[in-house]
Write a structure and sequence with these properties.
The protein is mostly helical and 200 residues long. The chain is 73% helix and 0% strand.
Amino acid sequence: MENEGLRQLLLKRLSPNRYEHSLRVADLAASLAAKHGVAENQASLAGLLHDYGRDLPEEKLLYLARQKGMAVHPVDCLVPVILHAPVGACLVKEEIGITDPEILTAIALHTVGGRNMTKLDKVIFLADIAEPGRDFPGVEEIRLLALQDLNLAMIAAFKSAIRYVLDKETYIHPATIDGFNEVLSEIRHCRLEIELRRRG
């Protein structure tokens, strides 16, 4: 399906605000992809479709996740809206016919993150949190870092997300902690390598 067809599909599926958000995410994802050596067409498509499941009722998300045999964490049951990412990825494959595993994984991980995130996964995660319509403390820092270093931007984004749920006194998904720890390890390993090379 061409992009125009996908946009018409999203217009019917999403609220007007969610649709506009998806367009902005697609645009930012393409820009970040170009900056960081990621395929722009993959990033744009994943960005456009990242919220495909977002407007489904929470009970439907939980039902679909279980019906499709997904691993449902207790936190998912407490905050079912989190499931819109993996359920949305599954629906994108089934209903639209997109089978690119990199696009589907980027959609599935865009809300809470997780282990083994690729550059494309990080681009979509950051485009979602930092698109121009977002306005929250720290978003400008995330935007600037996203243009410079994906991992540093991910740390800032994870910290912002964790602060948000702490302030709301709600549940932190363990996948977010896993993602934060892994990216932090990547940064520290990279810094160590640079220091060792510097020392010769």
